[in-house]
Amino acid sequence: MSALAAEVGAINLSQGFPDYDCSPELIELVNKAMKDGHNQYAPMAGVMALREQIAYKTEKLYGAKYDPDTEITITAGGTQAIFTIISTVIHPNDEVIIFEPAFDCYAPAIKLMGGVVKSLELDPPDYRIDWAMVKKLINSRTKLIILNSPHNPTATILHKKDIDELSAIIKNQDILILSDEVYEHLIYDGETHHSMARYPELQQRSFIVASFGKLFHATGWKIGYCLAPAHLMHEFRKVHQFLVFSVNSAMQYGIAEYLKNEDTYLSLPSFFQQKRDYFRAGLSQTKFELLPSYGSYFQSVKYGHLTDEDDTDFALRLTREAGVACIPTSVFYTRETDHHVLRFCFAKRQETLDDAVNRLIEFKL
Ligand SMILES: Cc1ncc(COP(=O)(O)O)c(C=O)c1O
């Protein structure tokens, strides 16, 4: 959709990335790290100063102690962490439960390792997980459950009752969790982010994935990290060592300094909530039906009452004719289930959002 948007000159609210720059201070700190000579290989697990900052942040926010030496690894973005986790734990015929619509990199990595994707489809408007159905999917081959909260593409979040149900279901099972928490700070209306790190019995079997690209409006930097208890991280690093070896040094030093100011991440909920509210107010003037957005930087809309076109065709038409690009949600389902829902990214400047909303208001179906 980004390629089409560029080709036809549409406003690109499809892919999840900001159209404003990251902090000049962060750029300065990375520059300084380069000038200070941090231009050679970083240690395999990452620069210690950064791992220490992550340990501090995680303990302060979620109460979990991660040893920077053995339980934190810096990765080349969330995607690499996810691939590494899956290739670390999945062997042929192992089953992995995922919830669809799902971020696009989970299923291909599982299949590449010979694993079997067991997907549970969630439906709009609330995309609630039916834990009784999850329980039915579990058997002796179930190796991993992949969670993602705040969620891409639906903008839903896990609640405490989900955590309770999950805990009860996997209590005496040998099942691991991959918790994709790249939007951990993009959560609104005072809601709590239920990180796996908050719950000792879940934390002990979880790989948690985070992304500085999402955190610091710098998706092009492709840098993130993975948290896991030592025995799991030990296995993770066996793959990481030969897949990536180490992640670029200067950015790690720069980010380690930048993270010392907690405001850099604590201010994110209000920063993005303001954008969400602004975009929703604009969209409410269109004919679309707005779905809730509790977290992430996505806003979905339903359009089935306006046309019965399938969501891919409609998204293409909206890009070409209205000049606004979005993502049809069916692409996030293995079976391409079409609920006539489109996803927009609101991590954009106010002018961009204004322009997009005006075009959508003017668009004649
Ligand atoms: C849910 C989710 N997980 C992981 C990623 C990947 O993060 P990164 O860009 O750090 O690889 C994304 C990026 O869009 C995402 O939406």
Helical run tally: 15
Uncertain runs are none
Number of strands: 13
- Mind summarizing the main beta sheet? 7 strands, mixed
Shape: globular
Summed over residues and divided by their number, the pLDDT gives a mean of: 97
What is the alpha-carbon Rg in Å? 20 Å
What class would the helix/strand composition place it in?
alpha/beta
Task: Tell me the β content.
Answer: 15-25%
Name the bound molecules: pyridoxal-5'-phosphate
Question: Order of helices and strands, N to C?
Answer: HEHHEHEHEHEHEHEHEHHHHEEHEEEH
Helicity range: 40-55%
Give the strand order of the largest sheet, numbering strands 1, 2, ... along the chain: 2-8-7-6-5-3-4
How widely separated are the two ends?
20 Å
Describe this structure in words.
By secondary structure, the chain is an alpha/beta fold. It contains 15 helices and 13 strands. The strands form three sheets. A seven-stranded mixed sheet has the order 2-8-7-6-5-3-4, with helices on both faces. α7 (160-170) links the parallel β5 and β6 (176-180). α2 (24-35) crosses α11 (249-258), α4 (77-89) runs parallel beside α5 and α13 runs parallel beside α15 (350-362). The longest helix has 16 residues, at 268-283. It starts with a helix and ends with a helix. The model has no long low-confidence stretch (mean pLDDT 97). Residues 16, 77-79, 103, 148, 152, 180, 182, 211, 213, 219, 222, 224 line the site of pyridoxal-5'-phosphate.
